[in-house]
Write a structure and sequence with these properties.
Layout (H helix, E strand, L loop, with lengths): L34 H6 L3 H23 L1 E5 L14 E5 L10 E4 L12 E8 L3 E5 L4 E4 L2 E2 L23 E3 L4 E5 L17 E2 L3 E10 L5 E2 L7
């Protein structure tokens, strides 16, 4: 009697799946950099902004050196148009004074002002005549009355109290300007013989913009109209 042997077929072994490369398991596909390595590289944006900042600074230096400059208002002589301490942007290159402009004069223009740049309004230019009528609170250029809504208050007659400001009729020489402050009663200007008419070569430029303080930021109004 023969014995019967039963053979049981063993199941074939299945290959164990290998983990896939990718961001899910923290590995990067072949040929690519892992996220951790990418973060270690300096971002290109840093170089971009540094380059942009450097370019902007160079442009500012060129502009303020050749085309304009900054100056600060010192005192109350231009109230209510401008105020003490305001920082102004001044147009310099190619500027020629015109009636009504607010200009900045060189600090060496007159010694008694303490060596600071002064800011005034151009009332008349070379070849024009100026007449001041204190009683009527009026200024005339070439016989025409100026419309001056910007002055702070009516002018006080100083011709009898200030020996340096007795002139009421002035002829402006060619190449010079006659200037006054908008705050006429608290302004050392061309009415004073120690300053008088100002040679245009002493004009640093025209004040065009208030930069600081921020609440006063904006363009400066110009124009004395006849």
């Amino acid at each position: 009697m023969s014995e019967a042997f039963e053979f049981t077929q063993q199941p074939e072994e299945q290959p164990v799946p290998q983990p896939q490369e990718g961001p899910e398991n923290g590995t990067a596909p072949e040929g690519e950099t892992a996220p951790e390595e990418q973060e270690k590289k300096p971002p290109e944006d840093v170089f971009y902004w540094l380059n942009a900042l450097t370019t902007a600074l160079v442009c500012l230096v060129i502009v303020f050196t050749f085309f304009g400059r900054l100056t600060r208002v010192d005192g109350s002589s231009m109230e209510n148009t401008l105020h003490d301490g305001q920082l102004l942007l001044v147009q310099s290159l190619g500027y020629e004074p015109e009636q009504g402009d607010i200009v900045v004069l060189n600090k060496t223009t007159v010694e008694h002002l303490g060596g600071v740049a002064i800011v005034k309004r151009v009332i008349a230019t070379g070849g024009q005549t100026v007449d001041i009528d204190y009683a009527a609170n009026s200024v005339y250029v070439d016989g025409e009355r100026l419309d001056e809504p910007y002055i702070k208050e009516a002018m006080l007659d100083v011709t009898q109290t200030d020996p340096y400001r007795t002139q009421t009729h002035i002829e402006v020489p060619e190449g010079s300007i006659f200037v006054m402050g908008d705050n006429r009663n608290h302004s050392s200007d061309s009415r004073d013989v120690t300053l008088g008419t100002v040679d245009e070569r002493y004009v640093l430029g025209r004040a065009v913009w208030v930069l600081l303080p921020f609440q006063d930021f904006g363009a400066i109004a110009h124009g004395a109209q006849v």
